[in-house]
Amino acid sequence: MKLLLHIGSPKAGSSFLQTVCARSRSELAAAGIHFSVGTPHDEESMLGGRISAGNALHLARFVAEGQWHRAERWLQRAVVAAEAESCSRILLSSEWLLGSLGDQGRLIEFSKRLRQLGHESPELLLILRHPVGQFISLYKHRAKSGTVGSIDEWSETGYQLPQRLAQIRNQLEASDANLSVRAYGKASGSLEGLFFQDWLGVPVPKSASGLLVNPSLSLSELVLVRHLNAIRPSLVPYLYDRLLAVDPALKSEGPAMQAHAREVATHAVAQHADEWQHWNQLLPESERFDLPEPTGEPGPEPGELTLSSAQLAALTGLLADAARPRFMLRLFWTSRLRPALARIKRIVLPWHSRR
User: What are the CA-CA distances from residue 144 to residues 79, 230, 306, 348 (Å)?
Assistant: First the structure.
């Protein structure tokens, strides 16, 4: 049995690919590829076209915690399911695997245990974005709850991707794993082409057409979310949903905020220039990045925000709704009553509460 592991990286189309795979299981199985079922939460998210942890969350957790016997049992169940479909390859996709396999030599141990179980060495796929663009996109994803500070602050404590990549790279030779590294492209069809046609060797499934997964807010919108979280955290999910619903073509983003984000990202990426250069050499020559030169310390975050009339309409609409009794009852349910019931469920039915 061949194990195919798509391990990320973050903000490089993982959720999109996982949704396509979950919606195309029968097509993949006909080509001899078994796409394992994820947790109930992740399965629902993948099928619904939302961000998810893919179909290997439990495996990633077992590996991260060094619970190798549980990881082996999980893999054996996947093998049984694959054999039931007459498949010779198992496809697992989760960004959690990037961190769990990188830590404390676990990729080496994982490969060793696969061989002991009688399986081939794992095939890994890592998709990378241009480091500067990936930094900004990753910050937008982390900051959407309003609990993360400015992009300057996050660059000091939250930008851990280069370290995780180094942990994987340092184990490659000893692990006997086969790693393919490809660059994420924004051209239509490029991502699904490199994943399905180039890596898996199968046609692109029909479900990939017209699919959009995990869009982001603008930098100015994220500043609004951050300030609202400091005042009224319970309103943050509603503001996020209202702003996310605005057509991206109708949004504005001030040049000062964009320039600042790029300045911070360029400075942070340049601090890890040696690591990025290593990965650049692993990419096909035509896909290599133009890495930034080191820069000086970035300036402070701009004090002004830029919002279009459509974005302002979304904001003022929320303010108007927040004063209505029906909305206040809904807010009480989502921020107070439902969390309390969830806590009770975790105590009374702990197994059913696990993701």
Answer: 38, 13, 17, 32
